């Protein structure tokens, strides 16, 4: 499995799937302050992209401690409507993988704040995939990224949207190798 570093431009191509992760400014799931994607090519090379997002809301101390992002980081950043406009064409044509349901809820909430319905993207969940690939982790550390990082020896910085998106992509790739099943089969499609 090979990886590629973070790109300055949004990846534009045909990918097997795109993993997406967000960080939020506070407990309001629509307060997205960072979006990261990891695009997995047919040769399993990962192309990543990340941006800060100005959530136009307050930052809670808890969230800032968790991910290290505060008002100064996002002051000059695009707002959600600007950031997501860059990603919509890519995400509309690919399977979008999240790690748990949080990212999809956050995206839906941010669209609702704009007075728009979220696009009907095809979503998949790398937690579901991990449960299928490593059932022995149920009740034994679970399938969260922190535990999978340790058990699968993944190298990433947790609570950074770009890094967490890449980690979700890596979980899928490891699961495919371990089980011999495709992503679609692992998702039960």
What does this structure look like?
- It comes from Rhodobacter flavimaris.
- The structure is a single chain.
- 40% of the residues lie in helices and 19% in strands.
- With 189 residues, the protein is α/β, with parallel strands linked by helices.
- The chain has a single domain (3-186), classed as Nucleotidyltransferase, domain 5, CATH 3.30.420.10.
- A six-stranded mixed β-sheet has the order 1-4-3-2-5-6.
- A hairpin with a 5-residue loop joins strand 3 (32-40) and strand 4.
- The radius of gyration is 16 Å and the shape is globular.
- 38% of the residues are buried.
- Mean pLDDT is 92; it is low at 1-5.
Quick synopsis:
This protein is 40% helix and 19% strand. By secondary structure, it is an alpha/beta fold. The protein has a single domain (3-186), classed as 2-Layer Sandwich (Nucleotidyltransferase, domain 5), CATH 3.30.420.
Radius of gyration: 16 Å
CATH topology: Nucleotidyltransferase, domain 5
| First and last CA, distance | 24 Å
Helix-strand sequence: EEEEHHHEHEHHHH
CATH class: Alpha Beta
Question: How many H/I helical runs?
Answer: 8
| Count of individual beta strands | 6
Weakly predicted, low-confidence segments: 1-5
Per CATH, the superfamily is Ribonuclease H-like superfamily/Ribonuclease H
Strand content: 15-25%
- Percent helix, as a range, is 25-40%
Indicate the structural class: alpha/beta
Shape: globular
Architecture (CATH level 2) name: 2-Layer Sandwich
């Amino acid at each position: 499995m090979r990886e590629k570093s973070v790109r300055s431009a949004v990846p534009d191509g045909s990918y097997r799937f795109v993993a997406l992760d967000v960080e939020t400014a506070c407990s309001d799931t629509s307060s997205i302050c960072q979006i990261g994607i990891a695009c997995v090519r047919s040769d399993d090379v990962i192309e990543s992209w990340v941006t800060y997002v100005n959530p136009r809301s307050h930052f809670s101390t808890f969230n800032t401690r968790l991910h290290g992002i505060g008002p100064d980081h996002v002051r000059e950043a695009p707002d959600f409507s600007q950031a997501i406009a860059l990603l919509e064409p890519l995400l509309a044509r690919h399977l979008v993988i999240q790690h748990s349901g949080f990212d999809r809820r956050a995206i839906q909430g941010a669209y609702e704040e704009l007075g728009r319905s979220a696009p009907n993207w095809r979503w998949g969940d790398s937690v579901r995939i991990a449960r299928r690939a490593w059932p022995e982790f149920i009740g034994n550390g679970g399938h969260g990224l922190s535990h999978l990082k340790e058990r699968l020896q993944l190298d990433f910085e947790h609570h950074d949207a770009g890094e967490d998106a890449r980690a979700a992509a890596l979980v899928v790739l490891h699961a495919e190798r371990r089980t011999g099943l495709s992503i679609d089969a692992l998702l039960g499609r």
